[in-house]
Write a structure and sequence with these properties.
With about 190 residues, this protein is α+β, with helices and mostly antiparallel strands. It contains three helices and eleven strands, in the order αβββββββαββββα. It has helices spanning about 5-20, 105, 165-190, and strands spanning about 30, 35-40, 45-50, 60, 65, 70-75, 85-95, 110-115, 120-130, 130-140, 145-155. α1 runs antiparallel to α3.
């Protein structure tokens, strides 16, 4: 196989890999929805959103808080039955090797004690002083012995690589130019 075909094949494979690579993320018990963050807990769902009061754009987030500082987590029940159950919330420091239940207190960065929220909504504010990966842990306990938990990973103050469509178009253009220049350079000695 000629070096021209190898370089074209390599560049084409690189372009396909860049544009077709799937985005994979561990969402925990977060369920995708159009405009809401939905947390599956037991047979029920809770709507969830995170906010950072100093954010000029007033964006809500499900998984990644863009900066350090005060962060408010808001939970709204979808089912009226949850209004009679105790709900609690913890923010856990994420660990590489998983979380041992006996170390739950040691891994807790902040917590909200379980209580009943008859209006079906509760919030929790925490000031993050260091960037990192965390896990939100919501627990719901019922009078009939129900004990449900939901976990969702999130990060604070970390930049995530996001593939913008304009970057993909620019990358495709650059690869097209490289292919064109490469073919011209390889064809030049053949013409002599």
């Amino acid at each position: 196989m000629s070096s021209r075909r190898i370089s074209k094949s390599f560049l084409l494979a690189l372009l396909l890999a860049a544009t077709a690579a799937p985005t994979v993320s561990a969402r925990g018990d977060l369920v995708p929805d159009k405009d809401s963050c939905v947390l599956k807990i037991g047979p029920e769902i809770i709507y969830f959103a995170g906010y950072q009061p100093g954010d000029a754009q007033q964006r809500k987030f499900c998984e990644d808080a863009p900066r350090l500082g005060e962060t408010i987590f808001v939970f709204d029940y979808a089912a009226p039955e949850l209004r009679e159950m105790k709900a609690g919330f913890r923010i856990l420091r994420s660990t590489e090797d998983g979380l041992d239940p006996s170390d739950l207190d040691a891994a807790t960065a902040a917590s909200l004690a379980p209580q009943i929220y008859p209006k079906g909504t509760f919030s929790f504010a925490h000031v993050f002083t260091q960037p990192g990966d965390f896990v939100g842990l919501v627990t719901v306990d019922g009078a009939a012995g129900e004990h449900w938990t939901a976990r969702f990973p999130f990060s604070v103050g970390k930049r995530r690589f996001e593939i913008n469509p304009y970057y993909l178009i620019a990358a495709a253009g650059i690869l097209a130019i490289l292919l064109f220049v490469s073919s011209r350079l390889q064809a030049a000695p053949a013409r002599r």
